[in-house]
Amino acid sequence: MWTHKSWQGRLLAHPLPAGERLRHYAGWCDAVEGNTTFYATPSRETVATWAAQTDPDFRFVLKLPKVVTHERRLGDVAEPLAAFLTAIEPLGPRAHALWVQLPGSFAPADVPVLARFLRRLPDTYRCAVEVRHPAFFTDAPSTRLLEGVLADATAEWIPFDTTALFQDRPTSDAERDAWTKKPRTPLRTHALTDRPIVRYLGRDDTARTVAGWQHWIDVCVDWLREGRSPTVFVHTPDNADAPVLARRFHDEVRAQVPDLPPLPEPEPVEPLTLF
């Protein structure tokens, strides 16, 4: 996601042609979650415009289409998967990871299907898997089973940290909506590879969002000192200030790891005028 209505004219210039929106976002953050690819595989030409708007070290974490993960549940997916991989080829090194977000019904009994799927992926792409079935978090044998399959494929386990959201009752419409849609999974901070990926969901209140991510600051500092290269996505229920918060998170980590490169400087947004 690199456009949001509340960012327009405030964080990003507005109006912007479609071919420039990602470039302006890339002035705020150096990574993006590709959520739209879940709903439809983009054309190769569209993906080429994404590459043209970003530097080679920009990171795309692209969600696999729902026909692959949810409708066919990783089975009999050769055709839609091949179409997706062909479409994203123009990204080159920007394709940081293929994001396999599995439905909550995908249980430990389904792990052999995941193992077969991962073995068939081309080595040119790294894979990161997000699971939501509670047994993967609460049942030790199920945890070990999934970790073993992911480790064999050099794939990462993406934690989606919603603990701050569910700490107490929602206080806004956006938080109430998130309560009905987001998974309640236990906190997980263990990395399997040198490129861990974290999805963090805070609150609409900035202070509570910042308080909720403090353990991730410590985890990321440790990962960086171990030679890992984490990618962290910061969300709030309304996402109104997500780019600002992402930069604040990066600054807090960089305060402890000064060698971490700074994020780019956003392009200035011209104030709106009456004429």
From TrEMBL:
Phylogenetic placement of the source organism: Bacteria, Bacillati, Actinomycetota, Actinomycetes, Micromonosporales
InterPro entries (UniProt xref): DUF72, UPF0759_sf
Pfam families, A to Z: DUF72
Native species: Micromonospora rosaria
Protein name (Swiss-Prot/TrEMBL): DUF72 domain-containing protein
SUPFAM superfamilies: TM1631-like
Domain of life: Bacteria
PANTHER family: UNCHARACTERIZED PROTEIN YECE, UPF0759 PROTEIN YECE
